[in-house]
Each structure stands twice: as structure tokens, then as C-alpha cells.
Amino acid sequence: MPYYKLGEVPHKRHTQFRKPDGGLYAEELFGEEGFSGVSSLLYHQFPPTRVTRVERYGDVCQKEWKQETHRHHHVQTKDITPGGDPITGRKLMFFNNDCTLSVVRPNETMNYFYRNAMGDELLFVHQGTGTLETTFGLLPYHEGDYLVIPRGTTWRVQPESDDQRFLVVEAFGGAIQPPKRYRNEFGQLLEHSPYCERDLRPPTELPQHTERGEFQVHVKVNGEVMTYVYDFHPLDVVGWDGYLYPYAFNISDFEPITGRVHQPPPVHQTFEGPNFVVCSFCPRKLDYHPLSVPVPYNHSNIDSDEVIYYVSGEFGSRRGIDISSFTLHPRGIAHGPHPGTVEKSLGAERTEELAVMVDTFRPLKLSADAEALDDANYPYSWLD
End-to-end distance of the chain based on CA atoms, in angstroms? Predict the structure, then answer.
């Protein structure tokens, strides 16, 4: 991410930075890959090491739905019952050692803070408005936002609307970031990138929290969740600067790449993670060759599992897919347009589809929650 500064920081790093009462602010290096990766320097009212109590909160549950057959899946999550908060209400759908994909329809507020020490998180806001409160400041969100949260960030969601729905992607073993082919050697987004730095929204407000009391931070680490209790407000940062921080990017700011004939999915890539990519299928002009076939051609996923989450509009190559549904097209078997969709697409000039795709380069497992939502007839939906 580009260099950014918010709040007050001293002129030179690792030097004395004093409060109005003469005491020292506590400096924290927040960085990846030890001292070699991207980082930011944060200045706290209280030392971030000041913990009054540590308790074990519980395990991270990843109950698998064992597959007897290798097949395509259609998982329908539109009508899942709202419940829990943005963390406790998550319904895990797919997972492997690199990532998890979950959905959540929270109807409770977070009376604690959260820190994922195991991986970056990508929250796609399908429905709802609110504010992501973080150690780096406030990040307002609305429908269509991707919220990119670096691992180790302390945060919570404060919803402003009643109906909230998120797609959540966790990344383990690496960062969620713009694809390398969109960036030059200095990290700047290139001219051919489908978005630029102007489209990225960092936190813009840094409230000054000096409250004392008892505050809980639930920390996910090593497959478990711990509760750390502090006697000060965890979001006590007065200033920070650096290259590592949460930000928002709205899917409507993605500029689709089109051509005379159908373009392959990599042109829709938005982010990359450890052994997976995230793509945005957005409303766009369709192929303009006089003999073009606008819907995707049949293809086999030889090296990857393909998950598509349907957000809105009509997905031209699919029939019977509602919003908030997932399709999983795993490696080794072909998939493509449903019968009738090819002829129907001929001559079409535009699509209003909106979907998020996650392609993983290692096999995905299905969760027990996905089993109850699975359409067992989907593998046969290509029959006339």
C-alpha cells in the first residue's frame, strides 16, 4: 500500500514522543516478515503489552463435510438465519490450509474487539452500512466494499443498518494484496491496472480514546481463540505512519477489461492471496466481435478449485442461481454455460452481473454448514 500518515507522529522514528503531561507515548512496530516486510509505526497512549488477564476463549471449529463423490456444488445461503455478530455469526462454507470462505448475517453488535493473528481478512459487504473501527482509525463501509484487514489488526464492526450480510475470506501464510502484475517495482499500481490508488480508502479519522476500564480483545491464533483483557481502550493510538494498514475498495470502482472476444477470468482479478486469487465480475460491455459468444466457454479446472459468490444481477452462463449462492467447480471436471445460455447471449451488448470469485490452487474442503445448503441436483443441471 502507499505510504500514509494519520494523527501525530514524531519527526524521527524511535525517538522520544511526549504527551502533553510530559509522559512518553508507547511506540509499536506493526510489521510483516519480521523486520523485513511492509510495516507501520503506531504511537499508543498506553503500552500495548499492558495486559491484566489472559483466558482461553475456545477452539476454532472447522467441521468437514466428507465428500463421497467428486462433483460440482451449488450452496444456497440467501435464507440463512441471521445471528451472532460479525465474528461469532460466521457460517464456514469452504476451507483449506491457505484460506477459509464464510458468510455471516450478523444481528448482534460486538461488545469486544477482535484480532486475527493467523491471517489477513477480506470482508466483502454484500448488504449494510457501518464503520470498521481499528487501531488505525475509522473506516466507514457500505454495500460493495471490500474491507482488507491485515493480520494482527485490532478491530470491531459497528453496524448502522439492520440488514448486514458479508462474505469473509481469511488468508493464511501470506497477505491479501493487489496482484503483482498490476504493480511496478516500487509498488505503485500501473496504468493497465483496473483500479488505482485513488480508489483505495484508508482510515481518515483517528478518535482519541483514553478511557480506562476492562476491555476484551479476542485473539485468534494457533487454531484457538484467546481473550486478552486490558485496563485501557484498545484503540488508543494517537498517530501512525507506514505502508501497512486496513483499507476499503468498492467493487463499483473496478474497471472491467473487455475485448472483441470473450476475456478469460484473470482479467477480472482484484486481489491475490497465498495460493488463491479474488476476482470481481462487474457490470460491463460485452464482447464486440460480430461473431462473438459473450458467455464463458467450457473449461476444465485442472489446477484450481473455482468458487463464485453471486451478489446481484443475472449471471449469463447460469440458470437457477439466486443471490448469495455459491457455486464450487472443483478441479478435474469441466464446467461451462448451461444449456440455452449460449444462444440466449448472442447479440447481447452488456451484462449487469455482479459476483465475487475465489480460485484456489489447492483443493477446498466443504464444511458441515454447507451440507444443509447444498443443491444435490446441481451436477446434472447441464442436461437439456
Answer: 49
**Are 201 and 169 contacting, i.e. CB atoms less than 8 angstroms apart?**
no
Strand partners, 229: 53, 216
Q: Is 253-380 the same fold as 51-234+243-250?
A: yes
CA 126 to chain centre: 11
In this prediction the pTM is 0.95
The x, y and z cell numbers of residue 59, run together, are 477452539
- DSSP secondary structure letters along 262-282: PPPGGGGEEEEETTEEEEEE-
DSSP letter, residue 345? H
Selecting from 2.60.120.10, 2.115.10.20, 3.40.225.10, 2.50.20.10, what CATH number does the domain 51-234+243-250 have? Answer: 2.60.120.10
* Cβ(345)–Cβ(297) below 8 Å: no
Q: What gap in Å lies between CA 211 and CA 61, rounded to an integer?
A: 34
pLDDT band at 296; cut points 50, 70, 90: confident
Q: How many CB atoms lie within 10 A of CB 96?
A: 18
Whole-number Å distance between alpha carbons of 158 and 156: 7
Q: Are 320 and 341 in contact (CB under 8 A)?
A: no
13: left (phi over 0), alpha (psi -120 to 50) or beta: beta
The bridge status of strand 113-116 relative to strand 212-221 is parallel
The amino acid sitting at 337 is P
Q: List Cβ neighbours of 316 (8 Å cut-off, separation of 6 or more).
A: 294, 295, 337, 341, 344, 345, 348, 351, 353
Residue 319 CB coordination number (10 Å): 14
pLDDT at 12: 97
Yes or no: say if 92 and 269 are a contact pair by the CB < 8 Å rule: no
CB-CB contact of 103 with 90 (8 Å): yes
| Backbone φ and ψ of 344, nearest 5° | -65, -30
Please write the tens of the pLDDT for every residue from 239-277: 999 999 999 999 999 999 999 998 888 999 999 999 999
CA nearest neighbour of 55 among 213, 224, 222 = 224
Rounded to 5 degrees, what are φ and ψ at 224?
-135, 170
CATH for 253-380, options being 1.25.40.20, 2.60.120.10, 1.10.357.10, 1.10.630.10: 2.60.120.10
The helix (run of H) or strand (run of E) holding residue 371 is helix 368-371
